[in-house]
Specification:
By secondary structure, the chain is an alpha/beta fold. It folds into 2 domains: about 170 residues, 2-Layer Sandwich (VC0802-like); about 190 residues, Rossmann fold, CATH 3.40.50.150. It has 11 helices and 18 strands. The strands form 3 sheets. It has an 8-stranded mixed beta sheet with strand order 2-3-1-4-8-7-5-6. Helix 10 runs parallel beside helix 11. The radius of gyration is 26 Å and the shape is globular.
């Protein structure tokens, strides 16, 4: 019997790390890592609990199909997408869904049904499930499609409903089908990890009444336009952030606005070639994902340090350190990354996700700050052996790394990575044996304000 087919997602450009991790699992056959969406397609008979330990994967899905001939015109595309469900073999993906559902129920210590009842519930003909289709459509290299993501999701949903008889539910659902469309290429999968609590709460301000409904006894969701003026209707939807493979990290307790995914942090740490006994530093750590991922992966074999100058980020990192289970030594500090309080040549590895994007402060401040941080990294790295992995999106950073610091930093790799729709540079550099430049201390000039003298006549 052929092993089931999975799709594991990751940041586009970092598939090599996920591929290497999958190839280390016995009986795993990697099919492709070059599809339009970032990730790896593979077959394996490994148990779900073993695949759930993958560090380089954002999430894992049951593979339904990959197609490269999706029409651009709306009518032709809708007809094509509606007919896809009949071409899919649903038996193996639904069996994977059942196995992963049992794993989650066992892990959450919830009351689960017997395996025979579960299998009967997975039979579409005996007990229809609720489902939703989520579509993401992007045009990269061709003319824009004439249909929207909602059109694509509705067309696929119609096909699933007609073939399997499942009921569509956008807010609370048993199965989620995801479709990623890039130009004319389509990847369609079934989610295997879901957030746990599926309840609806209706809060009424007048009589302060509260009603909770489980998915087994779920009424039709009211429309906001039909609700009384004094009524606030709130739906607790399944959390997208909790329905990820990396959300199971024990240290992931507190987040900041632009927290890095642990799977991406793991890939950056792999690029750093960390060895036992190394001191690993992230001078702009945010909530501490990179240093905490390092100790969660390698335990007490290394020393990890994270720091930031934002008080909220430092507080979040401290909470994560306390909740990380104490797998290894990790310190969280508050400092100015442009003036590190460390001796020269004392750090083995620097792994840093520098701020970029609209949600990470002022652009002009970042353009001024990041090159100064690079100069400090040059100073603190061990000469000849120190390695730094720097993720940034800036022309100034590229100039600083590739030109200004060329005598002190040897470029090992330059990788382009897609992060939330942005193309980001990842620089892997080794410290040369050249002594660091001497930074002269220049005191600030006294600011003499010119006083205006008024002469009375």
């Amino acid at each position: 019997m052929e092993p089931p087919t999975y799709w594991a997602s990751c940041a586009t450009g970092l598939q090599f790390c996920l591929r290497a991790e999958l190839e280390a699992i016995e009986g795993t056959d990697v099919i492709s890592d070059s599809l339009a969406q970032g990730g790896v397609l593979f077959r394996t008979n490994a148990e779900p609990k073993e695949l759930a330990k993958l560090r380089a994967a954002d999430n894992i899905y049951a593979f339904l199909g990959h197609h490269q001939d999706v029409p651009l015109e709306k009518e032709a595309a809708v007809e094509y997408l509606t007919s896809l469900s009949a071409k899919i073999d649903w038996k193996s993906p639904l069996e994977l869904y059942r196995r992963w559902k049992q794993l989650d129920e066992t892990k959450n210590c919830s009351a689960s049904k017997s395996s025979s009842e579960d299998k009967e519930n997975m039979d579409a003909s005996s007990s229809p499930l609720t489902f939703r289709v989520t579509s993401d459509r992007i045009c990269k290299n061709m003319m824009k499609q004439k249909y929207t993501s909602m059109d694509a999701a509705a067309a696929i949903g119609d096909g699933v409903n007609e073939l399997l008889g499942w009921k569509a539910s956008m807010r609370v659902y048993d199965v989620e089908v995801l479709a990623w469309i890039r130009d004319m290429e389509l990847l369609i999968v079934v989610a295997l990890i879901y957030s746990g609590n599926k309840t609806i709460e209706r809060l009424f301000e007048n009589n302060v009444a509260e009603e909770k409904c489980t998915t087994e006894n779920l009424p039709e969701a009211p429309r906001l336009s039909e609700a009384p003026k004094d009524t606030e209707v709130k739906f607790q939807r399944p959390s997208r952030s909790e329905a990820q493979l990396h959300s199971r990290r024990q240290y992931r307790k507190a987040l900041v606005g632009t927290s890095l995914k642990p799977s991406t942090s793991y890939a950056l740490l792999q690029l750093a070639q960390i060895k036992p006994g190394h001191v690993v530093l992230d001078p702009m750590c945010g909530c501490g994902t990179i240093p905490l991922e390092a100790v969660d992966w390698l335990g007490g074999q290394i020393m990890s340090i994270g720091a930031d100058n934002n008080p909220k980020a430092v507080d979040a990192a401290a909470i994560n350190v306390r909740g990380g289970g104490g797998r290894g030594p990790c310190d969280v500090l508050s400092w100015d990354a442009a003036n590190l309080p460390l001796r020269s040549g004392t750090i083995d590895r620097v792994v840093c996700d520098m701020p970029f994007g609209n949600r990470c402060g002022n652009y002009k401040v970042r353009e001024w700050l990041c090159p100064k941080v690079v100069k400090e990294v040059v100073r603190i790295l061990q000469r000849g052996t120190g390695i730094a992995v720097l993720m940034a999106q800036s022309k100034t950073m590229r100039q600083e790394v590739e030109v200004n610091q060329k005598p002190f930093l040897e470029m090992l790799q330059h990788i382009l990575v897609e992060m939330e729709g942005l193309t980001v540079d990842v620089y892997v550099v080794r410290r040369t044996i050249e002594p660091p430049p001497i930074h002269e201390f220049r005191p600030k000039k006294a600011n003499h304000k010119r006083q205006r003298v008024v002469v009375k006549r």
